[in-house]
Each structure stands twice: as structure tokens, then as C-alpha cells.
Amino acid sequence: MKKYNKEEIINFDGKDTLAAFRDRFYILEGITYMDGNSLGLLSKDSERSLMRVLDEWKTLGIKGWMEGERPWFWFAEDMGDMASPIVGAKPGEVVFSGTTTVNIHSLISSFYNPKGKRTKILADELNFPSDIYALKGQLKLRGVCPQKHLILAKAGKDMLLNEQDIIEQMTDEVDLVFLPSVIYSTGQLLDMELLTAEAHKRNITIGFDCSHSAGAIPHRFDVWGVDFALWCSYKYMNGGPGASAFYYVNKKHFGKEPLLAGWFGYLKEKQFDMLTEFIPAPNAGRWQISSPGILGSSAIEGALKIILEAGINNIREKSLKMTSLLAGLLQEKVFSGFPGFKFVTPLKEERRGGHIAIEPPEAVRINEALKARGIIPDLRPPNIIRLAPVALYNTFEEVWNVVETLKEIMDTKEYEKYSKQRKAVS
Length: 426
Ligand SMILES: *Cc1c(COP(=O)(O)O)cnc(C)c1O
Hints:
Strand order of the largest sheet: 2-8-7-6-5-3-4
Strand content: 5-15%
Shape: globular
CATH superfamily of the largest domain: Type I PLP-dependent aspartate aminotransferase-like (Major domain)
Largest sheet: 7 strands, mixed
Number of domains: 2
Helix content: 25-40%
Structural class: alpha/beta
CATH architecture of the largest domain: 3-Layer(aba) Sandwich
Bound molecules: pyridoxal-5'-phosphate
Number of helices: 15
CATH class of the largest domain: Alpha Beta
Distance between the termini: 31 Å
């Protein structure tokens, strides 16, 4: 990478067409927030949509279900349609409902159909633990032994997954492939288009957990023909802690039966007929289970408005510029001078998501030292520090400052003041 000085970096901010979006967010005072991959920040737009719904509850009571500005009764479908251009989906295919892990259970219960020789689920050993727990639970519910029937594709020594290895494991014993889009720890982006095409060549159903890519990179579920996908709304989508999650079901599967059925998956026009026979909605809405958590989830409306205004392609473009700069500066100022640092995230643009994962020599202590200096990264076992400069609210200057601070921490050995013991949430 070309060598930059601070003025040139500040110039990037001056020319950045997304720079104005930062003012729409509540930026934490005195903090350089590099953790939007874990919890996105609150925007003023989100605050407004949340407060509006609170006010609707105050002034409309139960009438809010039909008379809210965006009637609560259709909120899940409404927000799903609003999000669909961000992931490349058609109306009716995306729903804002449930939570990530609950949606994994709900969708896998319909999309995993062991029969004859085809009884296996193919996933990967780096996936988020909750996804693996859910897959094992689903196998047990079908009376299938997870030890034999859950295949976890292995990562190489470099902690990266290899698409060709995964494809080789798509045998005629596999019924379903379920993978992350971006691996939460390493930041590697898998080639979803290729994996989908290869799974379908072999008659295998494929779904993705896009929690670490939605809101950071464009998706084309429609073009790729992905069978189903799901993702949380509180990372790059800025929907708020524990808000409802999104799921996507390709319209070719609208006829499938939801087995974790619930009354909010009912044909909406007849839901209040209160019949005991289940008539599912004619679209992805049928996988909903319960009344949507309107109050805890209405920040998403403002958050989606911002992403749509900014444009997901522009967000990706800026994100790549920021992560390239971050990696380049780290290499120049830190990695070259202090042994033991290495990149975990692949540095090729098309192979990485929105964050950069590094493996420093003393991850726990360096993470603490960064936090003491007002920088919020996060730590993932065994010894990865993740840094996520987010296109909508971080600046290039912040990227520069993070690297300068890390360099100082290394120069002065400031990290030695901190314990090697990892905290419960770090
Ligand atoms: C964030 C994340 C989750 C979180 O699950 P919840 O049910 O929302 O708590 C699950 N899987 C992946 C891959 C994630 O990135």
C-alpha cells in the first residue's frame, strides 16, 4: 500500500460521499467505536421510529395493530419488504420476525428432510456456536445422531475455509448445507453464489446465516437462487440489541410446511377467525411463530431507511476502502515493527466481510489496553481481535487513530499493565 500521512487520510473523509450519515448516529463521546459487527450504533432515525411506536401504544392502545403509521399487524412483512433490496430479494420473501437462533430452528425444521441415503447436514467448524447447537438439536429431534450426521467442514491451519473442500463434501448423503456468509471470528466471506450453484447441481438444499454480512455487503439471493437465509438485525443493520431478526425464503419454497407453526404464520386475512386448522400465509410469512416484538424492534425502520438512502453498494465500497486502509496501516506501522502479529482475515477484497481480524501476540492484554484508550474492538477466542470500521458512522481518521494508538501501546509496552485473563464479555 502507498504510504499515507494523517492529512491525506483526513482528505478521504472530506471526499467521502457517505460522510454525512455519521451525524445521523449517536456517536459515543470520547470513544472510537470499532464494534459495529457486534452491535451497531443507534441512529436518530431509529430513535424516531422507536419513539413513534411507543407513542402509538400510548395514544392508540390496541388500535395500534391496525392504525399505527405502519400498522403493527403487518410490521414483520412490511419491514421484510423494506429490507429486500438490501439482500436482493422479491416482495414476500423477507420477513422481520423471531430471532436468529429461533429462525434457524424454524427454517431447518422445514428445509431438512432426511430420506433414504440423504440424511446429513453439512456445516462448518467455525460457525457461530448457537448455529451448531441448533443444527444438533434439529438432528436429534428427527431421531438422527448428530455425531454421524452433522458434517463440519474443517478450516485450514490459517483458520480459513476452502470452498472447494466444502464442495467436495457435498456428497449424495447430504440433504442440506447450512453455512455462514461471513465467518464471525475470521471475517472471511464465502462465495455464496458458487456454493449455491454447486449444492443445487447435486440436488442439495442450501441456506446461509448472513448475520455478519447483512447491511455490510450486497447479496443477490434472487440471482444466486439461495433456498433460505437468515440474519440478526443488531450488527451492521443497527436494529438494536436483541431486536427481531430477518429471514428469507426463496419464493419457489412458499409451499413448504412450517413445522414450528404459530398463529402469526397464518393467512393474515383469516388469522382472527381463530380456527384450529392451520392455514399458512402464501409467502415467507408462514414461518412466523408469535406476535412480533413491536416495541423492542421498531428501531429497525429508521435503520433500514438509512441503509437504503446510503445504498448497499456504496456502503460496501466505503467499507472495503476502510478495511484496506486499516490493513495497510497495520502492516506498515505495527506488524512490520513487532513480531508475532498476523492477519486472520483474507486480504483479498472479495474474500472478506466488514471487519478485520488480527492475531496479536498478546490479544487479551492488547484488547484491554485499547479499551483503556477509548477504542472499542472485541476479542474472540482463542486470540483474535476484531476491528470493524463501519461505513455509515466511522471515519478514515478514526482508522488512522486506531492504528497509531495500537502502535503506541506496543512502543511503550502499555499492554503489560493488564491481566492475561479474559473477561466474561470482552
Ligand atoms: C450474531 C449471530 C448469532 C446470534 O444469535 P441470536 O439468536 O441473535 O442471539 C447467531 N449466529 C451468527 C452467525 C451470528 O453472527
